[in-house]
Structure prediction request, 420 residues.
Amino acid sequence: MKKNMRIAVAYSGGLDTSVMIKWLMEKYDAEIITVTGNLGQKKELVGVEEKAKKTGAFKASVVDATKEFVAEFVFPALKAGALYENAYPMATSLGRPLLAKLLVEAAHKENADAVAHGCTGKGNDQVRFEVSIAALAPELRVIAPLREWEFTSREEEIEYAKKHNIPIAATVSSPYSIDENIWGTSIECGVLEDPMVEPPADSYQRTVAPEDAPDTPEYVSIEFEKGIPVRLGGKQMESVELIHRLNEIGGAHGVGRINLVENRLVGIKSREIYEAPAATILHFAHTELERLTLDKAVFHLKSQLAQEYANLIYNGLWFSPLRSALDGFVNETQKTVTGTVKVKLFKGSVIIAGRTSKYSLYSPTLATYTKDDTFDHTASAGFIKIFGLPLKTYRQVNRSSGKNRTGNGAHKSTHEPSKP
Ligand code: ARG
Prediction:
């Protein structure tokens, strides 16, 4: 029988998106095709297609986009130094625009009338999905069932699933909401909603507790080429493999656990736990290399723009002209970010051990305090005289308030000029 419309659904295989398939079929008299993006998550995606079809989907596909995710999303963010609120490497935030892209591609290929996603009405992900879809396919209709359906609890969804023979068994046991890909794991809900509660051991998925990590440190050397990691321990490695490997090594040392109260785009503060061993190590090592090879002014401006870059990712503006423009700046800076960084992993921490680069701007003869010193000490006198001139002049003009300003007392008349 001919259906009213065709909807492409971003499908994870979890409870929400499973219930969504059936719900959309009923509510919109629709034919459903599902798209599941593999972004390098550890959780096996075998059986996802069958599950979608068993639930009622007319067509189901799993797309392995891990390589694209790393090359086109993760590495640009790494090069930019993008950490949201100086802490979160944004595995989830970076994954959404790519999943939106896969969804749009499937919708076009299958001539779908609309796309649907399983994001809630109070999170960032709905924004990332819909803004990305709008940027890629402005004419495409988007349906967000979780914002409009009648279910008010997990229990009601499970009830609905049972009634409609939707296979859910493996998905309803965890008390946490978990999102995962190669760049990291995001964990929230349950007891984690209290920011004062230390995350219980079972909330962590891919790292050991620092106290259970080995008693001997492990050294890892990472070689970068133009801001991108290419070798681990001297061994050339394909990007996906390199990140998987670093996740294992870092995870075994308890590295990359982040316990964060963050500012969501939708105006609320939320508490989330992240595990991102490779991202933590790579961001750290990459910045250490930049300290060595970037010009001072470039390094300073870049760290400011890193926050802008992080904000745009977090806020769902990946497919924006601002991102392209910032990429232009970032890529220009990465021309000399080539070299090797050695880090020490130990009980949850990543510590710099050493760095070297053929583009190093560190000059031993300028820096040394030995007889090899070539720095012109006599030139400093004139430099200081002129560099300090504005402050000297200011004090001469504002003499009367001078004693107040150096102490802790109230600043009476700081702007009042001295009486002649
Ligand atoms: N707070 C993170 C972000 O906005 C992750 C959101 C998804 N988290 C989850 N546990 N399902 O990017």
